[in-house]
Amino acid sequence: MSDALRMAFTGLHPDRQRVLISERGSVGSAVRAIRRGQIRVPDSARDAAGADIADHVEALRVLDVRFLAHGDSEYPSQLQDLPDAAVGLFVKGRIPQAPAVAVVGTRRCTTYGRKLARRYGAAIAEAGWVLVSGLARGIDAAAHQGTVSAGGRGVAVLGSGIDVVYPGENAGLATSLVEGGGAVVSEYPPGTVPEPWRFPPRNRIISGLAAAVVVVEAAVTGGALITAGTALVQDRPVFAVPGDVDRATSEGTNKLIRDGAHPVLDPDDLIEELSLVLGPPGC
Known about the structure:
The chain is α/β, with parallel strands linked by helices. The chain has two domains: 2-63, no CATH class; 100-278, Rossmann fold. Helices cover 47% and strands 13% of the residues. The protein is built from 13 helices and nine strands. A nine-stranded mixed β-sheet has the order 1-2-6-5-4-3-7-8-9, sandwiched between helices. The longest helix is centred in the middle third of the chain and has 16 residues, at 111-126.
């Protein structure tokens, strides 16, 4: 676990970590090569690789955050066998051991999309399933709000350090998720700022934790469609909400449906469709 923790604290791009581990044969060998200066990395990454492991452990203790290394018994089983599984996950709270559904969409959503995402979040909670999403403005936050309001459990996956909730206005929502029996998760070390390049890799964790992915509103580019793409690679079914053909926030979802995603029209329809994948609600 110590080598995985040092590697995670380097904050290197997940793809770079995987390449280094593959080239060096193990996490430990990659960490030692970074520490010895055999691999060119930012000074902060080399310092993290060479730091006393007790310093990393203490930093997590202060934040009340656990680190789950790939291969640990508590590392999410849904992610263990993925070829791009994270070296480790920083977790505040507990990732529920129950069927999960990812609900994602654009930050620039319509009022209709926001309301529907809340209703989906509440319906998923009432079915006894876990909701997984990011913590961005728009559809992500609305879906979590619906889950929290219905007393359900949710998992928010961040594209920043676990102590750097972005946007800051959703810090209270993150706390509510943890207090409600869910979790906030990140593969990036504490203190990591939300740089744009960190979000696309984050999406594979959202889809990987879920048994199905639901896209409420999305343009033809952006994180929601990246998540749908990673879901298909991971063999997770994708559902999408159809919308006006001349509305930008429906263009992405309509194209997903055209290309084979399952259309869902309202919360009852969603639960009926998801039951075919996850089994009857409450099971």
